[in-house]
Design goal:
It is a single chain. By secondary structure, the protein is an alpha/beta fold. The chain is built from six helices and seven strands; from the N terminus they run E-E-H-E-H-E-H-H-E-H-E-E-H. The protein has a five-stranded parallel β-sheet, sandwiched between helices. The chain has a two-stranded antiparallel ribbon with strand order 1-6. The longest helix has 18 residues. The relative contact order is 0.22.
Amino acid sequence: MLKLVRGIFVVAALLASVSVGMPPAHAAACPDVDVTFARGTEEPPGVGRIGQSFINSLRADVRGKSVGVYAVNYPAIKNWATAAQGVADASAHILFMATNCPRTRLVIGGYSQGASVVNAVTADALPPLFAPPFGSGPPLPPFAADRVVSVVLFGIPSIDYLNSVGAPPVSTGGLYAAKVLNMCLPDDPVCSIGGRNDAAHNAYAENGMTAQTAWVTAQRLG
């Protein structure tokens, strides 16, 4: 099911100097496509199972193009306040790629808590809910948003779910809303209202939704 979203979230660290200390990217090192993906709660470091399924499908659909992958670095634990680290990390990578690899097309996505992290990256503004270093950071500049072709969200937590874990909702930013592919199974208790099937929350690869969003993203890439 493709629909625009109202996701969440917490807060990002300040981005004023995200490129400081980062090595310059040379044109030869810039991929045709770069995927930034945030894993779900308690998945091991990396892009997670759902993220890998999406990336595998995307690579097959854009055969002939190089696809870089960046796994968002954040704890992905049940203490969702730490997701702010993921917002800051993902934002820094996206800004770095947009600045140093202007021809690279950007895809950003996440699963479960990671989907909330990515949705917060797109937000026009975030509430200052935490003391430094987790203050509300500035949104990504418009030129970075212009490089993003798809925002793929799998099982993003609903407002009811966010309330249950003490996390506030945050709206998708206006520059990204038309680019969102929001996948939520009706029985998924995390993203749907009234969902009661825990297994549904883990089924986005098996039911073809990762392949579906990869195909749509590939069409956008041209």
